[in-house]
Amino acid sequence: MDQSGQQDREIGELRERLSRLSDASRRINESLDFDTVLQEVLDSARSLTGGRYGVMTLTGDSGQIEDFLSSGMTGEETERLWQLPQGPQLIGYLGSILEPLRVRDLVGHLTSMGLPAFDPPLPVGPEVPFLAAPIVQRGANVGNIFVFDTDDGAEFSRDDEETLVMFASQAAMVIGNARTYRDERRARTDLETLVNTSPVGVVVFDVKTGAPVLRNREMERFVDHLREPDQPPEQLLDVLTFVRGDGREISLKELPIAELLRIHEVIRVEEITLRAPNGRSVSALLNATPILSDDGEIETFVVTLQDMTPLEDLERLRAEFLGMVSHELRAPLTSIKGSVTTLLESASELDPAEMTQFFRIIRDQSDQMRYLIGDLLDVARIETGTLSVTPEHSDVSLMVDEARNRFLSGGGRSDLRIDVEADLPPVMADRRRIIQVLSNLLSNAARYLARGLADPDPGRTGGRRCHDLRRRRGSRHPRRPPAAPLQEVLPQHGRGPGKWRRRVGPGTRDLQGHRGGARGPHLGGERRAGPGGAVHLHDSGCGGGPSSNCKSVASPTWKAAF
């Protein structure tokens, strides 16, 4: 009878244990939050093993503890336990356990292992029963779960150890799923960031429906350029036409995108033109690649488009630059050829003075060609960052006067007035380049004024427009001139502005300018001189028509270091 009663009691205990395990499993599965699930695992493990306190540690990829959970303690008790002086050694030893550990007294066990004396900062009995199990995920220890002390001071049983191991395996599964999800999210975020920051348009199509499932910002820019303001982006695919590299035109009205994708054609670096019904178009380099499923079926199609407009603009600027160079070199070459032809064919009819004049023309025009070639080399040096600047003590008035004389000797307007303040201090400047900049500014300004732009209200200022040529002090960012007037002031043979900015060699200053049509690459516009000042041409806002009155204002405290 006693044996039967004992069996019934054991069966009842097992049923109760299974019921509690079932309840704990249900509570654990109720939440998808990582921290909530782990806390429920720890609470359930402590409750079902009869432990008074519970601790769970999680280690990161570096092996350092990155999370610490507690159960059965207050926040202050948890903080005191974590801040124990011998905590690092204690955690290091317990964290290295690869098998379940069950001891009668934790304090005595640590002492026997040669570790510092452990005085728990918690209410415990004379002996501290202890139970530990590693959390192993794919053969790697990712943490540990501990329960210690019991209400009656009894030692943990073998069943308690098995229960803790079971909860440790549940924690390992939760941690594995969470880290897999985290890694996937991180990889997806990295990929989305890479795609969105790419200067190439990217779009992914669903092959079955033909609908775009992903597109980056550059592709959205393509779409915004081609579509009407009130037109949904999806509708653009129904009316778009593109011209392939071999000249074939494909209209998506006649061949829907879904049917086009089913052709499964792989395209590599093909130049196409996209056209919209509103007349807008864009040229791009096309790449198209299908993505296969595990069954070998094509699920999606990845298409990339690289805008060719910047390259076309660059080619246009190169052509314009070559045209400018040809024009500049042709003029002195024509003079040389004409002089040489005259000397060869009519030498007997010329007196010595006329022959000397022709020789001077040949010499001067040869020098002009040499200067032009030197300026072209300067452009190459600017592009490569090797342009040399040699500053020396220079007189501002002399540089301005020499620039004026060069401008006048080159056929510039004679009604030019330059006002320079008296008693200007010497400045550190590359004399030759500063004179070149000032000469180019004057030449460009004269060309602009010669175009005779009329004032809409000539009565305000007598039909003149005021322009100042100033050197300013103190501003790293001088007030920029209005875009339209400056583009007209500094043209490239009337073909539009060609603006550049490059670093001029290591340790030197920025050089910014506009291409011009006078001798050499016109580094006019603005030349910045560190924090000290800048020379720049601007519309003073006086309102009137063209005027050749340029004013030079210099501050004695301004330090030029071009």
Question: Which key features would you list for this structure?
Answer:
562 residues, alpha+beta, Beta-Lactamase, Helix Hairpins, 7-stranded antiparallel β-sheet, 5-stranded antiparallel β-sheet, 14 helices, 22% strand, elongated, disordered C terminus
Overall 3D geometry? elongated
Instruction: Work out the helix count.
Output: 14
What would you call the quaternary organization?
A: single chain
- Stated plainly, the CATH topology of the largest domain is called Beta-Lactamase
Give the class-level CATH name of the largest domain.
Answer: Alpha Beta
> What is the domain tally?
4
Notes on the structure:
- This protein has 562 residues and is an alpha+beta fold.
- The chain has four domains: 17-183, GAF domain (Beta-Lactamase); 199-307, PAS domain (Beta-Lactamase, 2-Layer Sandwich); 312-374, Helix Hairpins, CATH 1.10.287; 392-553.
- The protein has helices at 2-29, 34-49, 75-82, 87-95, 106-112, 158-197, 217-226, 233-239, 257-261, 309-346, 352-384, 396-409, 431-450, 483-489, and strands spanning 51-59, 65-71, 101-103, 130-137, 140-150, 201-206, 212-215, 241-243, 249-251, 267-275, 281-292, 298-307, 392-394, 427-429, 467-473, 499-503, 510-514, 526-529, 533-539, 550-553.
- Helix 12 (396-409) packs across helix 13 (431-450).
- The longest helix has 40 residues, at 158-197.
- The radius of gyration is 42 Å and the shape is elongated.
- The termini are far apart.
